[in-house]
Amino acid sequence: MPASRFHSLYSPWLFPLACICLLAFLPAGCSEGEHNTPLRPNILFILSDQQHYQAWGGEDASFKTPSLDRLARESRRFSHAFVTAPQCSPSRASIYTGLYPHKTGIPGNTGSTLADGSRITGLKRGIRTAGSYFRKAGYFTGYIGKWHLGPVGDHGQDYDFAAFDTIRGGDATTDEEKTRKALEFLAQRPNNRPFALFLNYREPHNIYDYGWKHPPEPLPELAAGMSLPDSYYREDPSTKPRAQTQYMETGPVQRFLHADEIIWKSYRGYYRQRVAHFDQQLNRILAALKEHKLNESTIVLVTSDHGDMDARHRLVYKGPFMYEQLVRVPLIVRVPQAFGGQPAGIDHDLTVNVDLLPTMLEFAGLRVNGLDGSSLVPRLTGKAHDTADFVISQYQNKQKWNHPMRMIRTPGFKYVDHLEGMDELYDLRNDPEELVNLALDASSADIMHRLGDHLEQWLKQHQDPFHQLSATDPEGRPVAPRKVSQARGYRDR
Predict the structure, then answer these.
(1) Which of 75, 78, 287, 439 has the fewest Cβ atoms surrounding its Cβ within 10 A?
(2) Any idea of the CA torsion for 361, 31, 5, 141, to the nearest 10 degrees?
């Protein structure tokens, strides 16, 4: 309820009641300087780019992220947070629309080419993004940084404070400039309206500065003390989809294929440097919240659009795979006590990033029908809630290369259905590194069929056109469908 509505309560006999109601909504222990706290929470949504779920100090001590670590100690952390797609554009489209990529018009990165020769240009006409809902509800809205969803167009009108970066494939604005803009937003916000700020950083996507444009060179200062993951040594490409090897043989990525270990260690060291740079910007934003006395009135959400392979499975960057390092990301949410926030802790149940918009909307008192996600508010406020049996991720293409995949991930297993080529099945409890592909083992037929049936039901329920898609080679040339799986009883199809 906006503060202005309390003016009608100022009658002699209602004034005490009004005071009691107002105090009930104010944060506990707030200082005099915070008495303008809105009755609806502010929303601060911070998105990094290409940060996998272990890429912070709370999961891996080789990452130096004191700000993120401190925030996690004050928040609810979702240890099994997934993305709808392991790529920038489709994942961001899901975050800001609450819909799966096949519904948004962005099944792959904008500018890439589909199998029929058409290009992915941007969001479908009529699709609403987060700012539309919040601004209509009276929020002061802001969008800063990477857009990557095609032309901004009318979506720009949904934000009172807009600093979109719209170049194809990324953004040109430095993260320091984004932070400066965010500080400007916080300083300029009106005191009589709650705000919703969507802040999109580039790091650690700048890992592409190492080895993409120029051959990777040893960086001894970054490689020092850096180890390589177990899957780097134990990966057997012959038991994995051919697309994995094709990726490493294509374009600039092939520079890593036969590189010495110091190059791989330098890659990992450089990635950690980029994550640390994101953490430095996060520190400035969180400090500004405290300076403006907004901590007790602001819900803070920090996550990423997808991960990075970080040398696991002898892979770099991102590509046509569904490994945990690509589809699983950090998700940290701090909810003030005034809005039902619970003590800090870890939620181990599954969630996917289409859940984020419904969550933010519910905290703002808004419910929107037709979204694919489910609100996390019950899980954040200690109320009874249902748990997801599985999550789904989608993959379509990379530049001209169309290699459609669908992943179904349960608490214990992961099945990846490749439209063309070898499928994948992993027992995550016994094989967390995803080294043993059980799709090649006929004894895994029962679990694979069960997961396949769940996936098929989901495809039909959500009108996902997966089986109507087409595959190409990396140059965009059509390839004949061919399926490889012992567990599901076929070799060629």
Answers:
(1) 287
(2) -40
